[in-house]
Structure formats: structure tokens, C-alpha cells
Amino acid sequence: IQAIKAEHATSIGEIRRTSITRSEFDSVVGRLVGQVKILKDKVSHLRLERDNLRLKLGEIKVASARESFASGSRKRGAELATELELMCKDLRNRQRALHERELALSAKERQLFTSEHPGVKIRER
User: Fold this and answer.
1) Has residue 43 got a pLDDT over 80?
2) Cα–Cα distance, 1 to 23 (Å, whole number)
3) Is 78 within 8 Å of 68 (Cβ atoms)?
4) How far, CA to CA in Å, does 52 sit from each of 40, 41, 68, 84?
5) What are the boundaries of each domain within the chain?
6) CA within 13 Å, CB half, 86
7) 55-105 confidence digits (pLDDT tens)
8) Helices 74-104 and 22-71, interaxial angle, to 10°?
9) Source organism's superkingdom (predicted)?
């Protein structure tokens, strides 16, 4: 994502040059659109990963409740609680990373992204 952002900044710099031909402009806009699509795919992948982690978390809660009830084992319950805490921490870190990436998008990137994908909401700073 950092490499894409660097490319994006370079492309925006090219657009800001005073003398630019129509073909150069079209080329730069084409690259920007491609970069936004890549970012969209990465954001979608992170959201899917987050949803999968939530599902796993729910499964662990159910398994933990069943096992604790069935065996009465405090040790296994403590192990599951620790595992659950680690998964929650991982999920929080992933959500924080996704939020930071969304905030890192510039206003123009956000506008271009939401115009291509009207149903997607991106948080603003």
C-alpha cells in the first residue's frame, strides 16, 4: 500500500505540472484509476478478513461455552479465554490498520473511490 501511495503522489505531482498534454493527462488519470482499484481490492480484502475473524471469534465463544459446561475444566477454560483475548487483540489491530489506511486516503482519492463505488463508505479524518 505504501508503494501504491508513493506512485499515487508521483502521479498527482505529474498532474499539477503546468504544461501537460492531453495524452499525458489521460495516462496519469488511467494510472490513478488503476491505483484506486488496487486500494479498493486491498480494503475489501481487509474487510473480508475482519469479518472472517469475527466469525472465528464467535465459533470460539460457542466452543468455549460448550466445553466449559461439558467438562467443568477451569484450565481449558483459561486457555480458551487467553486464545480469545489474543484473537480479539489481533482483530482490534487489524481494524485499527484498516481505519488508518482509510484515513490516509486523500480527499481526491476518497472522492474518486466513492464515485466508482457509491455503496462504500470511507471514514474521513
Assistant:
1) yes
2) 27
3) no
4) 18, 16, 24, 14
5) 2-116
6) 7
7) 888 777 777 766 665 666 667 667 777 777 788 788 888 888 887 877 777
8) 170
9) Eukaryota
